[in-house]
């Protein structure tokens, strides 16, 4: 078993200052050094247009552009490099797993991906300029792979495929755009119809109304449906599905067989390693790294790294009222010896293990 951690980051202030603070934290970090090595092997299959990226971000969440400028100033990088790493526009994405279930006042998701991509940052951010406050783990610094905002909108996403990519945002930046700018599921669905999508993902949005919408997206279209469970295949845009759906349908079946569970039982269904949802396929880009839960009415969030864990409970309502959390790190264990990008040297693609 490997002990892993996520740093808890709390910030209140402008987007530019938030970006500058994050740039100072990651400057010369092992994460940046590992990413530099990763790019030596995985050449970018996209081009950077500063103007196009700026205009696309400002259209949906203008504060994030200021955050990128803060990162640039702290890191002292060319803007092209900042956008390549953190801009979230026109970037390739590898395969992954992920399962999401919603119930009475909760959204719970397993984040299944590769350790060499997991940056180990759990963020609280309260902007003083524009946009909503957000709690949740970050990806590529500016993005969010799941989370909840001050209005009680919760979001997670599931990978479908990366065939025939288009010009657009990647999943974690889309997660941030939605949480930054949308107050409820209706606004989130509308924005997901407008956002240009780089790859094919399902976005699950849930709010205080208790309604869950699953928005199936690809560069070629968007479909909306309602359900309380989602894995890694489309139910509406079936023509977009991959050929190998056995495991995705198996996990979905388990979730559908366990309807109307309370939050504790639903969390155990997702996080316990013997229930059939948690995955240890880390080398196949589909191992469960964290299980997160969001409670829009209570305005609380749960977080666990690895399986068979009791969640850490964060009171987001208290934090929004000015009470900082007294924890600076979340720890857990996963059954892998693959290095994590934020913890270990050699978390690059020179070794494919």
Notable features of this structure?
353 residues, globular
Would you kindly provide a written description of the structure presented here, covering whatever features stand out?
The protein has helices spanning 15-26, 30-41, 50-60, 62-75, 79-86, 171-181, 185-194, 246-257, 263-271, 316-320, and strands at residues 2-13, 99-103, 106-113, 121-127, 134-139, 143-144, 146-149, 154-161, 200-206, 212-218, 221-225, 229-230, 280-281, 286-295, 300-305, 312-315, 329-334. Strand 7 and strand 8 form a beta hairpin. The chain is globular. The two termini are 16 Å apart. The strands form two sheets. Strands 1, 4, 5, 6, 7, 8, 9, 10, 11 and 17 form a ten-stranded mixed sheet that branches. The mean pLDDT is 92. The protein has one domain (2-13, 96-334): Penicillin V Acylase, Chain A. By secondary structure, the protein is an alpha+beta fold.
Strand and helix map with partners:
Layout (H helix, E strand, L loop, with lengths): L1 E12 L1 H12 L3 H12 L8 H11 L1 H14 L3 H8 L12 E5 L2 E8 L7 E7 L6 E6 L3 E2 L1 E4 L4 E8 L9 H11 L3 H10 L5 E7 L5 E7 L2 E5 L3 E2 L15 H12 L5 H9 L8 E2 L4 E10 L4 E6 L6 E4 H5 L8 E6 L19
Parallel strand pairs: 1-4
Antiparallel strand pairs: 1-17, 2-3, 2-12, 3-14, 4-5, 5-6, 5-7, 7-8, 8-9, 9-10, 10-11, 13-14, 14-15, 15-16
